[in-house]
Amino acid sequence: GPAWAELVDRIAGLSEDHEEVLAFSLMMIRLAGCLTCNLDSYRASLGCATCSRRTILGFKGDDQALLEQFEKARQEVSAYLATSGRADAPPLHRT
Prior knowledge:
Elements: H1 2-12, H2 19-32, H3 42-46, H4 48-57, H5 63-84
Helix pairs in contact: 1-5, 2-5
């Protein structure tokens, strides 16, 4: 929908290390299940862009639900960057 398209357009215009780009990536990685994808999988053969489009087309919520997912990821990235002090810091290890 229009709200989602507006978010995508805004994110596309930002630098790759911008907090909102990092949050958008985190959200998409979670929605698409990228961490369980491997080179031999059908998903991998489609490519990341196609997989991302299919993930959004198959999303069971509306624009508002997607925007809420983005906001949640943005808050997580913001909190992480505030603790680490920089975007290129190594990941936090949770015990």
